[in-house]
Amino acid sequence: MLTNFPEIDSVVRYEGEETLIELVDRLREGQEWREIAGIAYARAGQVVATPARALVEDLDSLPLPYRPFGTEHIGGFPTLPLLASRGCIRRCSFCSIHTFYRTAPGKVVRMRKPEKIVEEMLHLYRQHGVRVFLFQDDDFPLWGRKGRRWADEIMARMHETGLAENTLWKISCRAEYVEPELFANMREAGLFLVYMGIESGVEAGLEILYKQMTVQQNLDAVATLKQLGLVFSYGFMLFDPSSSFDSIRQNVGFLRQIVGDGSAPAVFSRMLPYGGTPIRDQLAKEGRLRGDLTHPDYDFLDLRINEYHRLLTLAVRSWIHKEGLSYQLSYAWDELETIARLTPGVRDADAYREELRALTAESNERVHPGGRIVAGVRAGRPNAAQARERERLLRADADKAAGYAQ
Fold first, then answer.
1. Structural domain that includes position 19
2. Mean pLDDT over each residue of the chain, to the nearest integer
3. How confident is the model at residue 120 (pLDDT cuts 50, 70, 90)?
């Protein structure tokens, strides 16, 4: 930031609550500010970083977030985000979160007290009419006995206060935490949506991403959520630095296995080598890193996949773009479950759910990068005429997809 934008005098590093207050106080009083902990600043064309400030040990010591903005809505019901914890215990190679928290001194994962979490939820429910809470934790901490006791206490307080019967909530967590009894209890306390970073349906992909998970664990988690009737969404990297055409086909098969029934829209992306991540360092060491810090990129081991990825992106843009059909379907699922659960007895909910499932399954079958697109890639490079014909077909598919989304 300081190198590319000379208009910026300083950057607050890591958690900023205490550092920002001290910086503003020094500036307001006309005092020297360049020696305070937790910042970086430019001096004579050089970037100077002061010692890192320790992470906030007690999250409950912070005031409630300032929320001057209005609520968003799902199905007409007000919704707002909140946090129950900070940090993540894992060290996924592609994720900058653990680098962020582990570079500064202090405890990496910190959990708020259950009573404080529920107090904030009650405040938002009573003062702003919030009915849907979106927990934005990097990883909702359900690991081990401590995490289970913490979750049990949150749920108990939700039932005591009536929040469990009058509100819904969403979490993001690892698939290994999805255990039938625990998530059944969470469903009864208002849980309706679970996001999981599945990332890969290939063991080698999970290994290079250092997920410390197995394909079977991901499959078991999806099966459990389906059985419990919980909506799920997921992150999935069809492409990663280890990708081959064989692994892409395996990943497509995995997607068909988990969402071929229309239980959730098909989505996928390409792993990006974010700054500060181990996988970025490895790609640089191998000479495969391309782009810059704001537009990171890399070459695949099989260079034909570079072109395949470009063409595939053209073909499925109308689905996987952030405003594409898959995302519209995701919102429809969230909206349906919100209305159905907060308005008991709403007419035709079951019929609508089956229709939405059928539409989602049809969309998934169209977007799956299989059939002609994957099968068209052969061991040898296509000649110019074949390449032009393939691109024409892919563009035609993209046009059809755009019409279908419309």
1. 10-49
2. 89
3. very high
